[in-house]
């Protein structure tokens, strides 16, 4: 069940990234982050209030708050890195954050078997290659690399924090707290940017006109992201965190395949090899 939930998480994250990428072609990236998370929070709040679970408090609440504060920062760093650096370099770098939950699992005493250890190594290599790393002839600025690494470790920390916050139940409440804080942090940043540079924070046709036409798509991206977080938390709770984290980090493969199927983008040879290695790693992890 851990493998199935983690793979579901990677598919949902791949869908969210693909949808968010399409939306950022029409809307500013910061606005996409805030609007999608706000739509998800509106849908999630009634479910959290009526779940009947005991209130999230103490260290669990602190973990949920930390995840909510780190999430939008990581997303913004990621989008900014994609804007100023080659996507084929930034995307694989963003998966490096998987070392955070994997390391946490090892610290907690998890010891993957030989097949699982091999699967982790093969899957991580596959994810990196699936992003289509561009090295030869590609200029990569230090700022893009730094932003990508900050985003990577932010994503990894959020994965670990959500798993810890929901370890004893109350998953819907944890996800709701995270989303509300995502909106608060991202909304504050959006207001600050809009004051300095309205053209860089708002769509050309105006805020409400731009959002109204794309609200269903924004809501779908936000819901996919929430569902992915929930699936990962359940996967980490039901099995080894290290295995769940690696399988959940296969989302670049899903994004690349969606781009091929929806947009007709052709996979580069290195991406095809990466997708194959990711599949082999998944089989090893599931078999272990």
* Structural class category: mainly alpha
Give me the Rg, rounded: 18 Å
Report the span from N to C terminus. 13 Å
* Uncertain ranges: none
| Major sheet attributes | none
**Beta strand %:** under 5%
**Helix percent band:** over 70%
Mean pLDDT figure: 79
Oligomer: single chain
| Strand segment count | 0
Integer tally of domains? 1
- Return the string of H and E elements: HHHHHHHHHHHHH
* Global geometry: globular
Q: Number of DSSP helices?
A: 13
For the structure shown, list the relevant keywords.
mainly alpha; single chain; 288 residues; 13 helices
Can you describe what's shown?
The protein has one domain (2-287). It is built from 13 helices and no strands. The longest helix is centred in the C-terminal third of the chain and has 32 residues, at 207-238. It has 288 residues and is mainly α. The protein starts with a helix and ends with a helix.
List the helices and strands and how they pair.
Layout: H1 2-23, H2 29-49, H3 58-84, H4 87-93, H5 99-107, H6 114-130, H7 142-165, H8 171-196, H9 198-201, H10 207-238, H11 241-248, H12 251-263, H13 269-287
């Amino acid at each position: 069940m851990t493998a199935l939930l983690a793979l579901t998480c990677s598919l949902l994250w791949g869908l969210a990234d693909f949808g968010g990428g399409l939306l950022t072609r029409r809307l500013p990236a910061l606005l996409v982050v805030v609007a999608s998370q706000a739509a998800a929070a509106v849908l999630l709040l009634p479910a959290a209030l009526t779940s009947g679970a005991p209130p999230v408090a103490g260290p669990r609440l602190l973990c949920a708050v930390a995840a909510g504060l780190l999430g939008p920062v990581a997303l913004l760093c990621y989008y900014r890195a994609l804007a100023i650096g080659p996507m084929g370099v930034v995307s694989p770098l963003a998966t490096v954050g998987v070392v955070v939950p994997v390391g946490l699992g090892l610290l907690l005493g998890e010891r993957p078997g030989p097949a699982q250890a091999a699967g982790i190594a093969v899957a991580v290599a596959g994810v990196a290659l699936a992003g289509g790393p561009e090295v030869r002839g590609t200029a990569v600025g230090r700022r893009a690399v730094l932003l990508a690494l900050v985003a990577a470790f932010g994503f990894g920390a959020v994965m670990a924090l959500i798993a810890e916050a929901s370890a004893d139940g109350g998953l819907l409440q944890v996800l709701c707290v995270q989303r509300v804080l995502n909106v608060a942090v991202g909304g504050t940043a959006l207001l600050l940017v809009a004051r300095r540079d309205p053209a860089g924070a708002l769509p050309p046709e105006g805020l409400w006109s731009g959002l109204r036409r794309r609200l269903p798509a924004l809501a779908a991206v936000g819901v996919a992201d929430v569902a992915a977080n929930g699936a990962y938390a359940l996967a980490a709770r039901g099995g080894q965190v290290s295995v769940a984290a690696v399988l959940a980090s296969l989302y670049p493969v899903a994004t690349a395949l969606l781009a091929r199927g929806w947009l007709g983008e052709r996979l580069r040879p290195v991406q095809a090899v990466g997708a194959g290695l990711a599949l082999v790693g998944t089989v090893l992890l599931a078999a272990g």
